[in-house]
Please model this.
Amino acid sequence: MSQSPKAGKDETVDILLDGRLRIIQGSRGYRLSLDALLLARFAAVSTGASVIDLGSGNGAVALALAVRAPSARLTGLEIQEKMVERARRSIALNSFGDRLSMVHGDVCAFERLFRPGSFDLAVSNPPYRRLNSGRMNPDDEKRTARHEVRGRLGDFVRAARYLLRHGGRLAVVYPAARLVDLLQTMREEELEPKRIRMVHSFAGSEAVLALAEGVKGGRRELEVEAPFVMYDDKKKHTREMEELLAGRQPASPH
Model:
């Protein structure tokens, strides 16, 4: 009888979504943030959809989607071998092996890894910072996740264009300050921006993150959704924030 996967040295098993998800993470390296849960909630996942997570890291977005959309067939693509191995153990820990798999590979090598038009939905939480911006973290996991060391924004969007069928969707979480870069890149790659949602710490505060969806071959019309606000004026979680952390997702995609 095989043993259940466990956390190794310098790793933790974190319980999320009201106990429905367990994820193995490095205690010192890159760890999931709220971004992953926001993206998994925002993405429009249809019944039986084929989904790829570009730059999957520890697999947080894909794992959260597996909880939210039990009928989806999910693939995570990640360049860091240690992260892939860790994600695979999380997949086994949650018994998602029949519908979620990890591929160790470079997002820039998408043509060698997959056939064109293989997916209905692509999701990505790409590195936020340009190579020449800010201090580079000495930790390789954090550096690769935060800075465009092994892939720029355009590489992730270009991969999505190749991998998606006509009418397929790309959902991305990105800093609000770089939203114009994201929307411009989507349009250049013929993934027409169709839906955006801004994320704020408090009502009336500046947006910190942007969630954006582009449709391959879509028409030029953009829906701006009501903002997502994390905290109320008493610095407590808003109702929607509580729903996010509990994994209570929107009933249906757009």
Observations:
- The longest helix spans residues 81-93.
- Helices lie at 34-42, 60-68, 81-93, 110-113, 140-146, 153-163, 179-188, 239-246.
